[in-house]
Amino acid sequence: TLTYMLTPIVRNFALRFRAVAQVRERDIHTEITPRWGGVAMWLAMAATLLAVQNLELVGKAYSRELLGIFLAGTFVLLIGMLDDRYELDAITKLAGQGLAAGILLIFGIQLLWLPINGIIILPTNIGQFLTVLVVMIIINAVNFVDGLDGLATGIVGISAAAFFGFAYLLAVENGFSRAGAPSLATAIVIGICLGFLPHNIYPARIFMGDSGSMFLGLLLAASAITLMGQIDANAVFAEDIGPATLPLLLPFAVLAVPLLDFGLAILRRLRQGKSPFAPDKEHLHHKLMKLGNSQQRTAVILYFATAMLAIPAMLSAFVPVWLAFSAGPILFLFALSITKRTKTSTGA
Questions:
Q1: How far apart are CA 160 and CA 185, in angstroms?
Q2: I want to staple 313 with a disulfide (CB 3.0 to 4.6 A). Which of 21, 253, 304, 326 is the partner?
């Protein structure tokens, strides 16, 4: 993909401009590694949008919402690039994320209703506040899990695939035209992750950095909000195309691993009297590695944990719930066999 070809070029620029991750006591990597992986991702997305805009089927997905997603992603990418180079403080990054969410609001991307005891139409200010909150939570959840080679890239790719499946079925199978923009955005995220992963798996030659984690987090959050916040809630129920809650709940289901890690980290640090954004070595991947798992095996375990939640959640909108969630145990058994074979082959 474009990301695969562009990443080595971006890597050289990152080294030239000293946008690198130094080796610190809390880090797992043992060599100075360039960041700015998000730049390659952004370039790939921009080139893809330019290349496919005139295709008949894809062109229908172009909209004001997609432009808003791209511009907000561009803004948060720039904030991430500065952080990758100069290590901005947490408040500055949060402010940048809030402004990126504000760009989404300008382009009409916000939560308008919630399926609570039927349909609750949100007052404009409440909808805007919740939109900013959801965007910032998902961005930081992806950022927090980016502590192991290939981990965030794989989890985001799996999450995007599940969300794309849901949005695509709405757009194509059910004729839900408003799902076109999130379908295209999540398809691009899948391509980005597939292209970047070979450069990012252990031993990583480049990190996505905050430029990449915040960019991908925003794309996922914006896609979810576009799908739910911009559709007619009553039409969802009338057309019987699945639970109305799913467009909002799906991103939280497929991102359960990073969201859990994010929530536990915040609680842990507050309980210790530290800043919620103070770094430590108590993330989920750290705990798995302390149990004797290698970096590769730890990443695979968390990949399958993500898939176990993402795939059933996506399928539950279109097939009976019991059938959708039967995929979970199957994936669990497969993951168990993979990790056992890996352990045997490595002699661990």
A1: 9
A2: 253
